[in-house]
Design goal:
The chain contains four helices and five strands. By secondary structure, it is of the alpha/beta class. It has one domain: HUPs (Rossmann fold), CATH 3.40.50. Helix 2 links the parallel strand 2 and strand 3. Helix 3 runs parallel beside helix 4.
């Protein structure tokens, strides 16, 4: 049922909880895992070119660190894992990667159920509502993680 699991990461410590869920699914199903980090370049629109290039380089380094750490967790379990870094709107890039990698499941973090806020982060909400495959959201707010 699940041959390829897509795990988007933002490099935060809360990703650990998401990794646990994705690792469980992948191990039980014998699925490959694709780890994705997206450089969100929407904030670069107001920066001058030199500053935008510097910020992109910094985020690329963060993405390389983040994807390597997450991939290592799967490799330690002898699971097949690949990683990629993309640039653009995170929601759009996650959805494009679902198609590019022929993913069967997305496992990603969300911000929990604070009734004064949107139930999901804007990226999670976009992926949940627009993905053509199941999306497992994991509360990373710290309250229930």
């Amino acid at each position: 049922m699940y041959d390829t699991v897509l795990l988007p990461t933002d490099g935060s410590e809360s990703t650990e909880t998401v990794v646990e869920h994705a690792r469980d699914v992948a191990a039980r199903r014998g699925a490959d895992v694709h780890v994705l980090y997206v450089i969100d370049d929407r904030a670069f629109l107001t920066m001058d070119d030199d500053r935008a290039a510097e910020a992109t380089d910094e985020l690329r380094e963060e993405g390389e660190r983040a994807t390597a750490e997450v991939a290592a967790a799967f490799e330690a379990e002898d699971l097949e894992v690949t990683a990629a870094i993309r640039r653009g709107d995170p929601g759009d890039e996650i959805l494009a990667t679902v198609d590019d990698r022929d993913a069967d499941l997305v496992v990603m973090g969300s911000h929990g159920a604070d009734p004064t806020r949107n139930l999901l982060g804007s990226v999670s909400q976009k992926v949940v509502t627009e993905a053509s495959i199941p999306v497992l959201t994991v509360d990373v707010s710290g309250e229930n993680a």
